[in-house]
Structures are given as C-alpha cells and as structure tokens.
Design goal:
The complex is a heterodimer of chains A (about 270) and B (about 300). Chain A is about 40% helix and about 10% strand. With about 270 residues, chain A is α/β, with parallel strands linked by helices. Chain A starts with 9 loop residues before the first helix and ends with a helix. Classes of the chains: A alpha/beta (about 270), B alpha/beta (about 300).
Chain lengths: ~270, ~300
C-alpha cells in the first residue's frame, strides 16, 4: 500500500492512469479521468472492506458498470495494495491479467463489464441480497451517462424503487459524452436527476470533481430517512486533469505517443500548481 | 412434468432458504404452491428479463441460489448476453428454466415458440444444458442442477407426452438413458424432450430391434457413451423439437464425426419459422415432426444408397 499522504490523491491516480495507458498503448483515458475524484472519495471515505480484503463477505459492493473507466479503478486498487506495480508496467502485455474493460476475476472488481447496462442490474441484485439478509452492506454502481441509454438501467430502477432498496446508490458520471459524440446530440438525456426522481429515487446533482461535494452528498444520502434508492448525478469533464484532453472526445479512442504522453504529464503537474 | 418441476422447486426451497425463485411475470398457476409454501423466496421481477438475469447474478454473488423462470423464447433466448457475461463467466450457481420450449405455444406464433434455445446456450462456456423428457427426468434434472452449484439451462418442452421411465432414473450428469434395449448392429434412436416418447413409439411399432436413448443432458454429454452407440449401430437417428442446427443432433454428429463415423439422420426443425397457426399437433405436422412424417424420413434414410 502507498504511504497515507499519497493514497487516493487525484493527481497521483491520474498519473497512474497515464503511465499505464502509455505502457499498454490503450484507449479510454478520458473515460477514466472523469471518475477519478468519485472513486477517490468512495475508496477513501465510504467503501468498507473489513481486513482490507476485497472479497470480505460483509464488504460494501462497488460495481463499475461503465467498465471503460477501469484504469481509474486499477489505480485505486494499487493504492489499496491489491494490485502490484508490475501489473501496471506490463499492462496489455501478452498473458497479463488486467484487461481494457473490467473483469470480475480481478479481486476488487465485482462484475465483468464493458457491455453496458449489465453492472446496474447485478448491483440491484446485490442490494436486494443484502436487504433479504438484513445486513447493512451498501451497493454503489457507477454508470456512464451514455450508458443510461441501455434499457436494463430503467428496468432495474423500477425494481429498486418498488422494493425500497435504500441501500442502493447509482452514481451517474455525467461527462456529457458517449462514444460517437455528445449525449445531447446522440440521445438527449435532459435532466438525469428528474428522470431518476420520476422512477422513485432520491436524487441530487453535484460537481463530480469536488471531493468535498461528493463526500457530503454521499453522507447525506446514507443519513436520509427515505426508503428510496439513491441517484448521485456527478457533473464531470471527460478527460479532466489534462486540458488538451478535456471535453475532447477523441481521448475516448486516442493512444498516447511519446510526445502526447510527455505533454499530458506536464499538464497534470501544471494543474496541481 | 410441470407438477414434478413445481414439487422439486418447493422441496429444494424448503431445504435451503437460499433458494430463490425469480420469474419474469410468468407461471401464474404453476407457482401457486411455491408462493404458498415459500412466500419469502418468491420474487416477481416484472416483465424485464434482462434486469432479472443481472439481478440473479447479483443475488448469487451474495450467496443465494436463484432459479430464473421464463418462457424459453425469453429465458434464455432474449438474455443470451446476460447469461454469458453476468452468470456463466463466473460460474455462478444460477439455474435458468425455459418453459414451453419448441411449439408448445403453437397458437401464439413465432414470438412464443423456441427452437433455437439449445443452440444459443450450447456454445456458452461453463453452462450446462438439460432437456428432460418426462416427470422423472425433471425431478432428476432439478436435483442435479441444484447440486452442481454451477450455471444450468433447463429446457422444458411439451409436458404431457407421457412417461418414458418407470421411476426417477439413476443418472450421472451427461449420461444418455436407455429406454428400449434393442440389438447391437441395428439402429439407435437418440432423442430429447418431447420426442423421446415419439422415438419409443416408432421403435415399438416399426423397429423392434432398435435401441432408444433419452438424452436429458445436451451439455455436458458423455462422449464415450455416444461414441459407443455410434460404433455399435449401423445408423443413428436423432430427434428433437429444436432446430437441426446446433441442437442435440449437432452434438451427436460432432462426436461421431471425430471418433466413430456413422450415418446420422437429424430429425428436427429444418431452419425455418412456423408459417401457420394451429394446435400443437398441427405445428408438429407443419414441421414434419409428427410420427408419420418422421417414419417416412427414417424409411427413406435407411433405404438410401
């Protein structure tokens, strides 16, 4: 595990993502950068893994349904000591374990995702399981805004509200983009908060890069007396942290070369200052 | 058959509180007894099959033993990807029950008919496919599906064709069950589901020296046993109320072609949808799966050069 001062530090996490994306010559950097602060707050303040065990029976469940952001989660799992440095330097090498989309065979990743809309329903099942067993486990599912085009999101939302799954929280990474363009241009979503509220969720919208705001919203949700499932809409910036990647959807697909890698590292350092 | 299914489900649920029944708003009368006896283990997931299968995976991950029920046109065909990714990939102990397989819903048309489900499921790794023929096989299959603690698709077709066994068979997973013993060197019938009874009737009427096997397990299937059957007979006839592409006939032919080549006639649905509406018997006739049509094909096959 890394030293406490560095753990879940957003700039360090982004640097880890850049390093592994460069090592593996991989895409989806923008998808990982929009969820860095969300993951940092969840892992630092909320997710409970007794004994630091990713498979502890009474753990909280964190389901990354938008598997495209998995590099951000890998970076967090390294901070937890669940992934070794070699896994990062050898990312995408032949015979390696870490894939470009999340795979449940990696301890700490609850589902195999990337085909969108799956993790949401699995998470609803986990929350229902915890409710049936009467445990206090929480289930968090992080979905992309483009991902909520998928039907099972809304099927599962009906079920979660009908069964008062107050232990279930969906976090929507509203970065405004999906693969082929802006969400507004592809399939307009308008108010995501209003949509989830109309499905019976307790919902709120926050700045998904403001760790204090994220932490406060999650804490308030769990303190709520409402029986409803929760929806946290996080307004984010795809590619956040490296200005030339921000809101530039080509970083869904583009690989780093030596020049852009150096520029990205330098931009990240500048952002901190 | 359906009573045997319902009884097995209640028995398993009463013995193990982790057993849950999830239904996609189907099984109105079928689950009356289950709902009465195990109300806390019954979940109607609504008309939302994709979400239901994902949830079943989540429930299995928290230690439950979900049985997911639907019509086989929907469970499994509508949710192939959820079964592959959410369940089979991690060998989660979820049992899928696809009811009304084949042409059970003869009057309702293609949306409710299911003759591609076995083919869809067979190619998914780590997923077993069971296809019982009578109430005794249903009982055995339900017990085995529960005890394997791995993903299983259990196909239930036409349920009133009569018994093919006299009692619950002592089967190993994968084994073919002999229902009529004939003579070595004659022909063998291998059938599954609703057509086992038909195969037995045809053998009794026209081929007294033929051996008839029921195949309640499409996958895994005992390839050694299939190989022996192919080696010991001059021809094999496979029957199923399913497409000839990717079903039991394909499974037998795959093994035979590699280990024990023999002439195989695959009787099934010949890559076509139903064209007309009518009774179950009418639909079988339309697809050439009624007894006279099958007998004619067997005769032509056996007399062909």
């Amino acid at each position: 595990m890394m030293s406490q001062s560095k753990i879940f530090d957003s700039t360090t996490l982004r640097k880890t993502v850049l390093d592994m994306a460069y090592a593996g010559s991989t895409v989806h950097i923008g998808c990982a950068f929009s969820i860095i602060e969300l993951l940092a707050v969840l892992y630092r303040n909320h997710l409970r893994y007794p004994g630091n065990d990713p498979l502890a029976a009474c753990r909280d469940y964190f389901v990354l349904s938008k598997g495209h952001g998995v590099m951000a989660q890998y970076a967090c799992l390294r901070d937890l000591g669940w992934l070794k440095d070699e896994a990062f330097s050898h990312y995408f090498s032949d015979g390696s374990d870490l894939k470009g989309l999340s795979d449940s065979r990696i301890p700490g990743l609850e589902v195999t995702s990337g085909s969108l809309g799956h993790g949401f329903s699995v998470g609803v099942g986990m929350a229902m399981g915890a409710k049936l067993r009467g445990t206090d486990q929480k289930t968090y599912v992080l979905v992309g805004d483009g991902e909520i085009n998928e039907g099972p999101i809304w099927e599962g939302s009906l079920f979660a509200a009908h069964h008062d799954l107050k232990n279930f929280m969906v976090i929507i990474d509203e970065n405004g983009f999906q693969a082929m363009g802006s969400t507004q241009d592809v399939i307009k979503l308008d108010s995501i908060q209003a949509k989830f509220e109309s499905f019976g969720f307790e919902a709120t919208t926050i700045d998904g890069h403001n760790e204090t705001a994220i932490d406060g919203a999650i804490t308030r949700f769990w303190e709520s007396d409402s029986k409803s499932p929760k929806a946290l809409i996080a307004k984010t910036i795809k590619g956040k942290g490296v200005p030339f990647m921000e809101n530039n959807n080509i970083w869904h697909y583009t690989r780093l070369d030596p020049e852009t890698y150096a520029q990205a590292l330098s931009a990240l350092a500048d952002c901190v200052q | 058959m359906r009573e045997a299914f319902s009884e097995a489900l209640v028995r398993l649920a009463k013995a193990d509180p982790n057993v849950l029944l999830l239904t996609g708003d189907h099984g109105y009368a079928l689950f009356d007894n289950f709902r009465k006896q195990c109300p806390a283990q019954y979940l109607n997931a609504g008309i939302a099959e994709q979400n239901m299968v994902g949830m079943a995976a989540g429930l299995a991950r928290t230690g439950f033993r979900p049985f997911v029920y639907g019509l086989s046109a929907f469970i499994p065909v509508r949710v192939v990807e959820q079964i592959k990714l959410d369940v089979a990939h991690d060998r989660l102990p979820v049992i899928f029950i696809g009811d009304g397989a084949g042409f059970v819903y003869s009057h309702l048309g293609t949306s409710h008919q299911s003759t591609e489900d076995i083919a869809c499921m067979r190619s998914i790794p780590d997923l077993s496919v069971y296809s019982p023929a009578d109430r005794f096989e249903v009982t055995a299959c339900m017990e085995m599906a529960y005890h394997t603690k791995a993903p299983v698709y259990l196909r239930m077709g036409k349920s009133d064709r009569g018994d093919v066994h006299g009692a619950v068979p002592q089967a190993r997973i994968g084994s073919l069950l002999e229902t009529n013993r004939g003579k070595t060197g004659d022909i063998a019938f291998i059938a599954t589901g609703s057509l086992v009874r038909t195969a037995m009737d045809i053998a009794a009427g026209s081929y007294p020296d033929a051996t008839v096997w029921s195949a309640p397990f499409i996958k895994p299937i005992d390839s050694k046993q299939v190989r022996t059957i192919c080696e010991q007979n001059q021809a094999v006839v496979v029957l199923e109320e399913h497409s000839v592409l990717g079903g039991l006939g394909s499974a037998i032919a795959e093994i035979s072609s590699e280990f024990a080549p023999v002439r195989i006639l695959r009787i099934g649905v010949r890559d076509r949808f139903s064209h007309h509406c009518g009774s179950y018997e009418y639909l079988l006739k339309e697809h050439g799966l009624n007894r006279p049509a099958i007998e004619l094909r067997i005769r032509d096959f056996l007399t062909a050069d």
